[in-house]
Amino acid sequence: MQRRYFIKLISGAFALAFIAPMNAFAAIWNKAAFETTKLSDAEKNLEINDEKPSEEILITLPDKAENGAIVQIEVKSNIPNTETISILVEKNPTPLIAHFKFSNGAEPFVVTRIKMAETSDVKVVVKAGNQYFTNAKSVVVLENGCG
Questions:
Q1: Which CATH code fits 36-141?
Q2: What share of the chain has pLDDT > 90, as a percent?
């Protein structure tokens, strides 16, 4: 009986240590925004409104992507008090690619790789306070990455 008790105890500890935090993380994930198929719906689910164009959002992307399955992007926001950076690709099956949150003075800079279904603009939206700022860059995709 002691062995069974020990196994139950370890299983319970594992569940508390690993599964509970995963459920908490899933609760803050904006599922609707990531699963929508229209850019406007993704922005609506992120509560983005009244975007202002800004050159203070620096986007580093290739002009031509050899393979849409791996497109490296760097985004840096020089907008004071940046809270979030969202990356969207209009012509993707699901336009919202990434949504990053920053707090406690973290530098608003991200480097990641994205998939692009076809030639499209890559749109970046930054939230600072109650304002939204945007910038975009067009990328020509030579080989489909989402098919």
A1: 2.60.40.2470
A2: 65
